[in-house]
Amino acid sequence: MASSKVIEVFYDVVSPYSWLGFEVMCRYRNVWNIDLKLRPAFLGGVMKGAGNKPPGLVPNKFLYMSKDLDRLAQYCNVPLQPPSNPAEAMFEKGSLAAMRFVTAVQDRESGGDKQTENVSRELWRRIWSLDQDITQPDSLTEAAVKAGLSHKEIEEALALATTDGIKDKLKNATQEALEHGAFGFPMIVCHVDGKKEMFFGSDRFELMAHCIGEKWLGPQPDKVQANL
Amino acid sequence: MASSKVIEVFYDVVSPYSWLGFEVMCRYRNVWNIDLKLRPAFLGGVMKGAGNKPPGLVPNKFLYMSKDLDRLAQYCNVPLQPPSNPAEAMFEKGSLAAMRFVTAVQDRESGGDKQTENVSRELWRRIWSLDQDITQPDSLTEAAVKAGLSHKEIEEALALATTDGIKDKLKNATQEALEHGAFGFPMIVCHVDGKKEMFFGSDRFELMAHCIGEKWLGPQPDKVQANL
């Protein structure tokens, strides 16, 4: 049954706060009466388009974010571990190939977005848990195998990811995020009763629940529900 | 009874997110088993010392913050209204005189910090609710009258606020915030069992509660408790 509450999650696997937001929203897709739409996009394009700078350039902010991510990861039960060289992983290597691949997987997928969800998660696990590459075709393949895709599906998605069609699709998603007012990820756009509410980051879930008329049960709703 | 959980709230009345954090923490001082310490400090000095820039310089971020503050103010039940010219109020006029005055009020006060709390709140109400000045002695006097201080107390605090002793006290509090890792306000430092946990902003209360072993009841705990 289609819900009248549509929630779009714009994310990039290069962003650790996006991983937290993504997992929390995936957990709530069956708890809240919502229709969740995964919107892979390119954070580099959003930062450039919005004229924003990475927060980690301020030393005290960088130190705080490391601690904050560590505490939040534990609290949210997401196995987040910073890569050994975050600047290299995030800014030098980046996520353009990875997000084109996710976009291709989503483009091929019909009847839901389970593959998109699983491939995104496996890519996060590589860069933000296992300190592994996400730029090379072999890396994308390994993530997709773990996500349950067949070799044929992976081969097709890898080929598709380099086409102009998919490059444009990712550009368009990024542009759409900017038009919603994005200046970073995750950005979560709630469409309820013809109105739009945008939330940035992974720290507005309680407020979001209040705004869309749902109940916030913390970042691990299954744990709470099991105890009811 | 002194609690073993000491929570310091570093704030500046120029900062609207500080107002939200301040009110929420003041509400929890009798809900959680904590010893709350109000730490007036100077945001301008923290931003300079940390090499940070105001977030509102990125246009999409500025637009988002306006919306975010509006939603949070309603949800937290704090009568926050942006001044007609936020840049003038925050950056041109600033809060140095106001925070020296709050520091003087706190310095004079014995047996608690009720005056400090009330004067801070009335200053926030002026700049972040009523679009009124907080730089002139008359403005500080009006806020202090509303906060319940006598004319003699106000006169003494105004005189004290211009002394080197108070100027240094505010500088030292600001420096202490930087040494705790601040890059903006509010910054909340929890001291529990000899360990220190620092939280930036007004969006980590649920996580903070988890970290210090208390229960988060939302930003209006009295409302929740009244329904129990």
TrEMBL record, chains A, B:
The keyword DNA damage does not apply. One of its GO terms (biological process) is glutathione metabolic process. One of its GO terms (cellular component) is mitochondrion. Keywords: Transferase. The active site is at residue 15. It holds the Pfam family DSBA. It catalyses: RX + glutathione = an S-substituted glutathione + a halide anion + H(+). SUPFAM superfamilies: Thioredoxin-like (SSF52833). GO terms for molecular function: glutathione peroxidase activity; glutathione transferase activity. Its EC number is 2.5.1.18. Gene3D superfamilies: Glutaredoxin (3.40.30.10). Belongs to the GST superfamily. Kappa family. This is Glutathione S-transferase kappa.
